[in-house]
Amino acid sequence: MPPSSPAPLASYVESWHPEPVRDEDPLPPGPVAAVSALLDLPETVAGAGDPLPPLWQWFYFLHWPPQHALGPDGHLRDALFLPPVPDRQRMWAGGRCEIAEPLRLGEPAERISSLSAVSPKQGRTGELLFVTERREFRQYGRTCVVEEQDIVYRSGRAPGRRHAETPTDRAPAPTSPWHLRLQPDPTLLFRFSALTANAHRIHYDTPYCQDTEGYPGLVVHGPLLALLMLELARRNAPERRVRSLSYRLRQPAFAGEHLLAESQLTGEGAELRVSTAREKQHATAEVTFT
Fold this sequence. Notes:
The structure is a single chain. By secondary structure, the protein is an alpha+beta fold. It has a single domain, classed as Hotdog Thioesterase (Thiol Ester Dehydrase, Chain A, Roll), CATH 3.10.129. The protein is 14% helix and 32% strand. A ten-stranded antiparallel sheet has the order 1-3-4-5-2-7-10-9-8-6, covered by helices on one side. The longest helix has 15 residues. The mean pLDDT is 91.
């Protein structure tokens, strides 16, 4: 008797409608100082009322679950916005952000998280489930930032994935005056995981990466690639405030590789990317200024 076909992913989420969740955070300056140290930014004193850079809300509203709640890959086994898919595997695909006004340090903030969209699609290696989570950030009753994150899930593992060895001695040459280099090592990835409460083992457990996931080494966090691109605008045009941004994570980068973030100015904003000697586009982004 032939084996039965797996149920379509849409069948697992037909009745999945999680309710919105509200969280609060006082937005203390500590995480800003920690991220600045991680990225070797000039020492600055961030105080009450100072604006939070775009996407730095990722270092706030953190959730530290009990250890027994984690699965073998380091992710949560179950959570409100994790779809009820068997043998679930998770990948961050990208997102968008609208900034009416920046969040301010030292002022109480609330975050309202909700499920925005669920869409099954057929990929090259099987069926995928795209889940979009919407997050609204408010201060003193005003909606300051609206963010959407696109997460891709599959049931089971992709077949036979292999990655070539990564060159750590070659760096791409910049083609734009706005560029920024970074060569993340395991220590930097470990610190970034801690700052974002991310226990996913692909960022700190080399044997797991190679033996279970098929990667040649530790994987650079997708959010770190996005923040690296946003640093270009923050460092080169500090007088221009980002009004909106979108980013897409395309190819994984690995510890030891020379990352190059570059930007090309457009009429109202900039187009950004992260490359290595191996790939031209690990991540891409677009920003518009006020």
